[in-house]
Amino acid sequence: MKRIKLLIDIYVKGSIHVALSVFSMSALSLLSLNKMISEPSLLIIFFASYVYYNLIKFAPLGFKGTNQPTLFWIWLKLSTLLSLLILLYLVKDLSKDSWFVLALSSFFGVLYVQKELLPISRENGWIKAFLVSLVWALITAVLPFTFLHEDWFSLEIILLFVSHFFLVLALLVPFEIRDMSVDKLTLPNLAQQLGVRKIKWVGYLSLILSIILWMSATDLGVYYQLAYFIFYLITAALIARARIDRPQSYTSLWVEAIPIFLLISVWVLGFL
Q1: What share of the chain is helix, strand, coil (3-state, %, to 5)?
Q2: Is 143 helix (H, G, I), strand (E, B) or coil?
Q3: DSSP line for 5-72
Q4: What is the pLDDT of residue 129?
Q5: Sequence-distant contacts of 230-238: CB under 8 A, at least 24 apart
Q6: Kind and range of the H or E element at 250?
Q7: Is 187 left (phi over 0), alpha (psi -120 to 50) or beta?
Q8: Residue 271 has pLDDT above 80, yes or no
Q9: Phi and psi (nearest 5°) for 187?
Q10: CA 20 to 30 Å from 144, out of 71, 187, 193, 236?
Q11: What confidence score (pLDDT) does residue 228 get?
Q12: Cα three-residue angle 90-94-95, rounded to 5 degrees
């Protein structure tokens, strides 16, 4: 049982799950516009996400602690270092456009964690949600298209970018509700400011806007649209069932799994 818990912790708390979620949303962007890129290019997104999340979560702790066994921290240190080396190798031939989007995303990502730089970090509840949604949208809906070495500043990509922004904002709602009792920000988080009922409606509205924008940007078959609708409905259900006392696995495992399961569903439909 301890080994199973360790494996789950390595997968979820060790940022593999969230990195897969970012990877999945990026792949979905390309599939939505019928584009294909090489696997190494998409791996850049996975490894960049994995390194970033491990650094912001565990670097301040020195990659050590008493709440996890030693094996967890050994794995975390080695896997983060190896991922960083792989990432540095993969990005060496990136285009200027890719570097620009990566730099812009990194800039906003640093603002999110460093409140000393500017008063618009995650210490501000509204800016916290905005920055997370912005960075995810840049990485998942813009960066993949810069790997194609063609015009990536098109109306379809802009619509997809805004669609992902609202989808991530909706996915953040259960996290905001869960953190109501622990977030001690300079300005309260969205759920603390609006209340549980109103923040859920923000999530529902964000999902509606996201699916409308996604359909405006894409021209996929009815089965793909149906898959998206089903998972948007599942996301709405997860928002509806969100509570302050939900276990962390509710958000960190199931909510973050939405893009992963959606990608699997779309991938399977491609073989039908």
Answers
A1: 75, 0, 25
A2: helix
A3: HHHHHHHHTTTHHHHHHHHHHHHHHHHHTT----HHHHHHHHHHHHHHHHHHHHGGGTS--SSS-HHH
A4: 85
A5: 230/265, 231/258, 231/261, 231/262, 231/265, 232/207, 234/258, 235/167, 235/170, 235/171, 235/207, 236/203, 236/204, 236/207, 238/174
A6: none
A7: beta
A8: no
A9: -120, 135
A10: 236
A11: 94
A12: 175
Q: Is the pLDDT of residue 272 over 70?
A: no
pLDDT at residue 247, as a whole number: 87
Place of tokens 């298209």: 145
Residue matched to tokens 């276990």: 247
Q: Does the pLDDT of residue 102 top 70, yes or no? A: yes
pLDDT per residue over 198-256, tens digit each? Answer: 999 999 999 999 999 999 999 888 888 999 999 999 999 999 999 988 888 899 899 99
Q: How far is Cα of residue 128 from the mean position of the Cα atoms in its chain?
A: 14
The distance from CA 110 to its chain's CA centroid, rounded to whole angstroms, is 16
Q: Is the pLDDT of residue 84 over 60?
A: yes
Contacts of 203 (CB under 8 A, 6+ apart): 169, 170, 173, 236, 239
Neighbours of 60 (CB within 10 A): 9
